[in-house]
Amino acid sequence: MRMHRRFLYSLFIPIVIGLVISGCRGSRSGTAPATLSSLAGLSGLVLSSGPLSPAFAGGTAEYTCQVLHPVASVTVTPTASDERAVITVNGDPVDSGTASGPIDLQFGPNTITILVTAEDGATTEAYTITVTRNAPSSDANLSGLVLSSRQLSPIFTENTIGYTCKLPRSVASITVTPTASDGHAVIRVNGTPVPSGQASASMALSMGSNSIEILVTAEDGATSKTYTVTAGRYNSLQTWVSGSSAKNQPGSYGEKGIASETNVPGAHYYSTQCQDSSGNFWLFGGFGGDSTGSFGHLNDLWKFDGTQWTWISGSNLAFQLGSYGVKGVPSGTNVPGARGETISWMDSSGNFWVFGGFVVGPAGYIGLFNDLWKFDGTQWTWVSGSNAATQWGSYGVKGIADPTNVPGARMEGVAWIDSHDNLWLFGGFGWDAVGGLGRLNDLWKFDGTQWTWVSGSNLVEPPGNYGIKGVAAESNIPGGRANGIAWVDSHDNPWLFGGSGCDSAGSVGSLNDLWNFDGTQWTWVSGSNLRNQAGVYGEQGVASETNVPGGCMGHVSWIDSHDNLWLSGGQGWDSTGDSGFLNSLWKFDGAQWTWVAGSNMSDQPGSYGVKGVASETNIPGARENAIGWTDSNDNIWLFGGLGPDSSGAFGYFNDLWKFEM
Asked: Which three-class secondary structure state does DSSP give residue 3?
C-alpha cells in the first residue's frame, strides 16, 4: 500500500508543477482572448413564391417580388455569410439556411425585413423584400371570338358584345371558340364551361334565328360580361359577287392572260360554260356586250378563279370570224368564230371543248354549225365537223363509231361528259339526216376521235315515248327538244329536264319532264308527258312528292357532291299558269323536288343588296339562258342571262351570284 501511494504522488506532482509554470508564463506575456466576428451579411436569400428582383447579391439590400392573388403567404430562407451570426425575419429568429415560418400577405405591397446580427452582437445588416400580392383580376373581356362556319358581323372587337352571322340550311351545327383577355377568367357558352382558346361542343341550329351566349366571369368572381351571337340559319343565302345590277353592261377585259379585280365580262346571254379540276369556271361566247359596248355574238374565253376574272382567248369585239386552220392541227392563229347557243365541256386533261351553235363563220355568214373545237390552254384545234353552216347529220349505223359520223349543225343542245372523258350530246334545234330543220332527240357519244349515234331519231320533231313513269324500257325516248338542261351524276348516269320540245302527243311547247339514261335505256322519272304545265311549288324549303317545276326552257343547271340536281330560272310557267321569266331555284334529290329560293311568280326583278354580303333576302332577278356551276363547298354560282334588272327593266346581265345552301 505505501509503495502504491508513492507511485501516484510521483505522477501527480510533476503535472501540477507544469500547469503552474505555464500559467505564470502566460501572465507574464499579456496575450488577450480571441476577437468575435463582425460579419453580418447574407450569402443567400430565397423567397418561396417567386424570384427576387434584382437577383440576390450580397451587396444589395432591397428586393421586390410579385405574386398572384392566390398566394396568401410566403416563407423566407436566409443564409448567413457567417454561420455564427443571428438572423431574424420580421423580428422572429430564423436559423441560417432554414425557412422562416409563413408570413401572411395582404393584397398590395408587403414589406419583409431580414436583420442579420454579427457574432460580436454590435454589427448588423438589414435586408428588405417588398412582396406585392396582386388582387384578383376584374378583366372579363374576350380577346377573340371565332365561329366554325362563318365570320362574325361586325368583325370582333373586345368592346362589341353583339354579333350576327348568317348560315345556309346545309350548316346544321356550329362551334364557338372564345379566347379570354385574362387567362384566369372563366368562360361559359350557353351555360357550359369552355376553356379559353378552345372550341365549344357542337351546337345544333334550328331554322331561323339561334342565340348563343358567351358569359365571361373575371378572376375576382364578381365581374362578368356577356357576348351574344345571333346565328340565323336559312334555306339559302345569296351573295351578289361581281358585275352590275343594271342591264346591258360592256366588258372590262384588261390584259389578256392577266387576272384583275377590275376585269369582268360584259353582259352575256346564251353563253356556254364548264369547270376544270381545280374549280376554275370557264365562260365562252354568247350574245352580249363587247369592250366598246356594242352588242353581238362573241368568241371571248374567260376564266374565273373564285375571286377574279381573266380574259384568256378570243376577241374583245363582237362578230369575229372564225379562223379554222388545218383540221387536227393546233395553231396560235386558230380561233372559233363568235357564237351563241353552243355547248362546251372540260376533259380530265384540262382541255376545253366547244361544239356548234349559232356561229359567225369564216366568211362572215351567221348560221348553225357542227364544228368541234379543242383549246389546250394555249392554242385552238379544229377537231371535227365543217367550217361551213347548214350541215346535215351523218348518222351511220346506230351504236357503231365511224370516222364519217358527225352530228348535224345545231344550237341549244345539251351535253355532259362521263368519267371516261366521253362527250354525250343530246338534241337541240338543227339539221337532221335528210335536211329537215327542227327539234332533235338524237343522242351522240364522242370518244375524243369518233362520233357514235347512240339513241333517238335521225329526223326532226319526233314525239316523246314516255312509257310508265319510273320504269326503264328500250322503247322509251324523250321527244325532240332544244334549250333544255342536263346533268351527269357520280354513276355516269345523265339526267335530262325540260326545254322547248315535243310532248307525247307531238305538240310543241315548254316541257317539265325529267329523264334518266342508264347507258342503254331511258326512264321517265318526274313531271308531265304534256307541254306547258304550271309549276307546283308547295312550301319553300320542304320536299314533296307533288312538287314539280313548271314547263320551262333556257334554265341553268348544276349537280352537287350528293348527286342532288339543281335548276334555276328559265322562261316558263309559274305557279299560277302564267308564262314568263322565272327566278325560282329548285332541288331534286332523286325522288322529290324542293322549291328552295326565289319566287313562284314570273318576271320578278332582282334584289341585290350589298355586293359581297350574303343575305337571305338577296335574289337574282328572273332570267333565261344564264350559266352556272358549283364549287368544292357545294355553293352554286350563277352568271348573266336575259331578264328584268333591279329596276324591272329587261335586258342582258353580267351579274355574278353565289348561292349557299
From this structure: helix
What is the per-residue burial (b if ≥16 Cβ within 10 Å, else e) of 516-532? bbeeebbbbbbbbbbbb
For 435-438, the CB contacts below 8 A with 24+ separation are 435/392, 436/460, 436/461, 438/480
Cα–Cα distance for residue pair 133/73, rounded to 1 Å: 9
CB 540 within 8 A of CB 552: no
Q: What is the mean pLDDT of residues 118-135?
A: 95
Whether the full predicted model's pTM is greater than 0.85, yes or no, is no
Is the pLDDT assigned to residue 13 strictly greater than 90? no
CA 304 distance to own-chain centroid: 16
Q: What angle do CA 646, 647, 649 make, to 5 degrees?
A: 105
Taking residue 207's Cβ as centre, other Cβ atoms within 10 Å add up to 12
Average pLDDT, the chain: 92
Return d(Cα 184, Cα 361) in angstroms, integer.
Answer: 75
User: Please, which pLDDT band fits residue 558 given cuts at 50, 70 and 90?
Assistant: very high
Residue 597 host element (H or E): strand 593-597
Count CB-CB contacts under 10 A for residue 286: 30
* Domains annotated on the chain, with CATH: 42-133 (2.60.40), 142-234 (2.60.40)
Of 620, 456, 626, 509, nearest to 557 by C-alpha is: 626
* 424 closest CA partner among 409, 433, 412, 414: 414
Residues 229-238: tens digit of each pLDDT: 999 998 889 9
The string of pLDDT tens digits covering residues 45-73 is 999 998 999 999 988 999 999 998 889 99
Bridge partners of 176, per DSSP, are 147
Work out the percent of the chain whose per-residue pLDDT is above 70.
95
Beta bridge partners of 192: 189
| CA separation for the pair 65, 76 (Å, rounded) | 12
